[in-house]
Design brief:
Elements lengths: L1 E8 L2 H10 L7 E8 L2 E2 L5 E2 L6 E8 L12 H15 L5 E3 L3 E4 L2 E11 L2 E8 L17 H14 L3 H11 L7 E4 L2 E4 L4 E2 L5 E3 L2 E3 L4
Parallel strand pairs: 1-2
Antiparallel strand pairs: 2-5, 3-4, 5-9, 6-7, 7-8, 8-9, 10-11, 12-13, 13-14
Helix pairs in contact: 2-3
């Protein structure tokens, strides 16, 4: 995975998408920055870019994704790989369905995915060093270059969705006090059932992540 390191950018995701469309970059490629001024969060929210945190976007051709991975569950897939990477370095973070990183009850980051043509774009933000009020900070000290090296080693292995799901299913109980949103509704995950394609079932409705 080629990694482009920038000093400052408005959004690594926006930068990467524009570079791919103009053919200045081609997948597989990642963009990270020291500072980010207008990061993109889930549901159209912004992600505050405080210095020292992780601002990352990467692109992978759709053809390289595991054959059993539904696109709608790609954010869960790549989020879990990062959660596993950080856990192996001693972090106690957990993954709230489908793409938010938490320490206890504090959100410390999240991921979003988009399909641009036949290329999957994944954007990730994690509070490594600082956090706005109400958010948390990662509980271990890890250098970004080492983190990305370990993470992209996992990404490059492209393990099957079945393997990732079997691990996440065991941890889904961590969501018992958490909520998610769908169609402007707030859904208590304790009342949802995780299905083997990465969706949840709530009140008789199957819900996929839309981010």
């Amino acid at each position: 995975m080629q990694i482009l390191w920038l000093d400052e950018v408005d959004s690594t995701q926006r930068y990467l998408v524009e570079a791919l469309r103009s053919k200045r970059l081609s997948a597989p490629v990642a963009v990270t920055a020291v500072r980010q001024s207008a990061g993109q969060g889930s549901r159209g929210n912004s992600w505050h870019g405080l210095d020292g945190n992780l601002f990352l976007s990467f692109a992978i051709e759709r053809s390289r994704l595991p054959k059993d991975l539904r696109l709608e569950s790609s954010s869960l897939y790549f989020s879990y790989l990062l959660k596993e990477t950080l856990e192996e370095s001693g972090s106690a973070l957990w993954l709230k369905w489908p793409n938010d990183f938490y320490l206890e009850d504090k959100k410390i980051g999240g991921a979003i995915t988009n399909l641009i043509g036949e290329t999957l774009i994944c954007g990730i933000g994690i509070n490594l060093k600082a956090a706005p009020e109400g958010f948390g900070i990662l509980d271990i000290d890890i250098k970004q270059n080492m983190l990305l090296k370990s993470y992209f080693t996992k990404v490059g292995q492209m393990v099957s969705w079945k393997q990732i799901f079997s691990k996440y299913a065991l941890e889904f109980d961590n969501n018992r006090d958490a909520f998610t949103h769908h169609d402007e509704r707030k859904i208590a995950l304790k009342d949802a059932t995780l299905l083997n394609d990465g969706s949840i079932e709530f009140a008789g409705q199957r819900i996929f992540s839309l981010r």
